[in-house]
UniProtKB/TrEMBL annotation:
Residues 23-140 form the Response regulatory domain. The modification 4-aspartylphosphate is found at D75. InterPro entries: CheY-like_superfamily, EvgA-like, NreC/VraR/RcsB-like_REC, Sig_transdc_resp-reg_C-effctor, Sig_transdc_resp-reg_receiver, Tscrpt_reg_LuxR_C. It comes from the Bacteria. CDD domains: LuxR_C_like, REC_NarL-like. The keyword Lyase does not apply. Residues 165-230 form the HTH luxR-type domain. Keywords: DNA-binding, Phosphoprotein. Pfam families: GerE, Response_reg. This is Two component transcriptional regulator, LuxR family. GO terms for biological process: phosphorelay signal transduction system; regulation of DNA-templated transcription. GO terms for molecular function: DNA binding.
Length: 235
């Protein structure tokens, strides 16, 4: 059975400790998984209500309308966000809130990308209820928690460089991130202009800004850099 393990690192003191977490937002597009997780959290932490969202866009809208939750549990793959993109987007809205990535994908490179993007922890969907609750409690108390057997130094010999690259991508605006996603899908400027309902000249201006922020000279280089940190794709 896969269990979660604590890394040696401990983050700066969180805004709340585990016993003070009262409002949680689950972002997952699978209704059964979302409902089961919400029920588990209500029972285990004595919560009366757990907020849920089925997409990244819905989560961001909810945060703006209802305020920040005390903690977030984020599915790796959503209809409108794959890979570490979801964490990058939520970090803009919630700079001090612990975000836990949950997934069946336990590839070391994906875990490294999520942690570099600002996740408090990364846990498997196959965890037992006891292990899940224990992992969340430790994360909300300030620990970084990753799956047992995960070794950052083995997953990525140049982890610091990738973390810096992730910070550069995180500086992109939401519109620039949308354009970069379409570039990674192989879309031409005219297609991007049509899909986002903006002028082609505006697309070119955004692309220039994107290249400058991520220090890329060509579109192909931008795609390679995005893929290297698993920004949009999980596999």
């Amino acid at each position: 059975m896969i269990t979660a393990a604590t890394t040696a690192r401990v983050s700066n003191p969180p805004r709340l400790c585990a016993d003070q977490v009262r409002e949680i937002l689950i972002v997952d597009d699978h209704p059964l998984m979302c409902d089961a997780l919400a029920l588990t959290l209500k029972i285990s932490f004595g919560l009366k209500h757990v907020r849920t969202a089925r997409s990244l866009a819905s989560a961001i809208e909810q945060i703006k309308a209802q305020g920040a939750p005390d903690a977030v549990i984020l599915d790796l793959n959503l209809p409108d966000a794959r890979g570490s993109e979801g964490i990058v987007a939520l970090r803009r809205q919630l700079p001090d809130v612990p975000i836990t990535m949950i997934s069946a994908d336990l590839e070391a490179a994906m875990i490294s990308a999520a942690m570099a993007a600002g996740a408090q922890g990364y846990i498997s969907k196959s965890l037992s209820r006891e292990a899940l609750v224990d992992s969340l409690r430790r994360m909300w108390d300030g620990e970084h928690v990753t799956p047992e057997g995960y070794r950052p130094e083995e997953a990525d010999a140049d982890e610091q460089a990738k973390a810096e690259l992730m910070r550069r991508f995180a500086s992109l605006t939401p519109q620039q991130m949308r354009i970069l996603r379409l570039i990674c899908q192989g879309k031409a400027n005219k297609e991007i202009s049509y899909e986002l309902s903006i002028a082609e000249a505006t697309v070119k201006t955004h692309i220039t800004a994107i290249m400058s922020k991520i220090n890329a000279r060509r579109r192909t280089q931008a795609v390679l850099l995005a893929n290297s940190i698993r920004l949009f794709e999980a596999g």
